[in-house]
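Intended use. Records like the one below are meant for learning the mapping from a protein sequence to its folded structure. Do not use them to infer anything beyond what is encoded.
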Amino acid sequence: MPIVVELHGAQGAVLERLPDIEDVLHTTLPNYDDATFRLLTKIDWYGDTEFEAAQMGVLLEEIDRIMPSAVGTDQVTFMHRLRQIVARCPEIPGCKLKFLGD
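Structure written out for the chain above:
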């Protein structure tokens, strides 16, 4: 089962959901030991990883760094959609971004 990205509102409701059906994150995320990334290396493939709205600036920077790794229309589309969701999070009071592993 692929990782699913969810944007949650302050009350926990899922505002947006982005399943990684093509396994884009597996091919674009940095290795867990890459010290040049602070957040993307924390994503747990088999568990859940949660980020607060205050972390979205760093997360956006890191996503911008890995976007060139996306190849093909499906991967590029997924990365752009992920970036839009991350950019939306700080605009919603109390929101959280979750990466749900399999």
